[in-house]
Amino acid sequence: MIRARAKFAAAVTAVVIAAAGLVATASPAQAATTYKGTVKAGTTLQVNDVVTSANGQFRLVMQGDGNLVEYGIGNAVLWASNTPNQYGAVAVVGTDGRLSLVRSGKLIAQWGTTGVAKDFGVRADGELRMRKTNNNAMWRIKSFQSRVASGGTILPGTVLRSDAGGPRTFTMQADGNLVQYVSGKAVWSSQTFNNAGATAAVQTDGNLVVRSKDGRRVLWASNTTGRGAGQLLVQVDGNVVLYGSADTRTWSTKPVTGLLWPVKGTTISGRYGDDRGAGHVPRYHQGTDAPVKVGTPVYSSGRGTVTTVVRNHASYGNYVVVSYGLTTVLTAHLSEIGVTKGQVVGIGKQLGKSGNTGQSTGPHLHVETRVNGTLKDPLTLLAFR
């Protein structure tokens, strides 16, 4: 039976500020003042001031270049104001509930809604939040971290999350237990409770370990030493997966089910790597084609997140890209698209309908797959339905 000492309550209703186009121009410099957890309303964050989560894992830095940036484990950029080259700008936590970026008295950018504010802070899962005087959220920026690269350490109290505000988390609890939660229910645990202050580390040798507070004892390990430097990923399919240097799964909290071919049927008209002849760009076929008629339903390959939706592309026509952990599946030449960017899709969700759009010589579905950005033969990754 899984034992877990902490549960995380559902977040209060609040205005969500979108964090798009993350831009950071430099690693954070030495802070002038560090505020742990929260900073009081009415405070001005000067250049190099920092607001951290309670354990210091996540850091919001007022950089000298004018960019306000939140960093996570391994200096991963979780959110940015996208205001570089505004040298000397400061961030004002207003008593009216707004967060403002100001340079020489001129407003550069502003976030939030008006009200009587108490403080602004960085939560244990990386979320940025302005609070009212009654401690309820006034508004928030749903920043989060879903992956930890090798060499990264997860501190006590840190919450990793699969997606913005999603119910799938992976928590290094203060009691020493590393726990996966889905919709508030513990579904996996390292069973290392009663070890207050323990940390979890994604080691460069490919092992995921939980160590005692002093670092001397290994309390739990994935036993994947030798698989090489990879990354840990909290996925939207409800699984937490450790990938090795070859981008293959080396450990996961639950068994992995295979990804499925996007349409029903096994007929293939064009294969990955086919030489399409001089004049084609690229000359060699980057995907695999299914010769289906216009209007054939196109489905998701598993549980994933829609990362790209494009219409009227010169070559691909209408196409959709869905991310399943480290694997992405692109379906192109669609006649209809039925999903939106950022949407979490379940197994068998209809993404759209096949067509003959873009640079297409006839009705068909073009399928491309990539693992960690590298093209792969779709038929080696996707099973027919």
Note poorly predicted spans. Answer: 1-27
Structural class: mainly beta
Give the count of helical stretches.
Answer: 0
Mean pLDDT over the residues: 90
Helix content class: under 10%
- General shape: globular
Proportion of residues in extended strands: 35-45%
Largest sheet: 9 strands, antiparallel
Number of distinct beta strands: 37
The Rg value, from CA coordinates, equals 23 Å
N-to-C terminal Cα separation, in Å?
Answer: 35 Å
Notable traits:
disordered N terminus, five-stranded mixed sheet
Structure overview:
With 385 residues, the protein is an all-beta fold. Helix content is 0%, strand content 42%. The chain has no helices and 37 strands. It has strands spanning 15-17, 34-36, 38-40, 44-45, 50-52, 59-62, 68-71, 77-80, 90-93, 99-103, 106-111, 117-122, 128-132, 137-141, 147-149, 153-154, 159-161, 168-172, 178-182, 185-189, 199-202, 208-211, 218-221, 231-234, 240-243, 249-252, 259-260, 288-290, 297-299, 304-313, 317-324, 327-337, 344-345, 350-354, 365-371, 374-376, 382-383. The strands form eight sheets. Strands 28, 29, 30, 31, 32, 33, 34, 35 and 36 form a nine-stranded antiparallel beta sheet that branches. A five-stranded mixed beta sheet has the order 1-14-13-12-3, with no helix packed on it. A five-stranded mixed beta sheet has the order 2-5-6-7-8, with no helix packed on it. 44% of the residues are buried. Mean pLDDT is 90; it is low at 1-27.
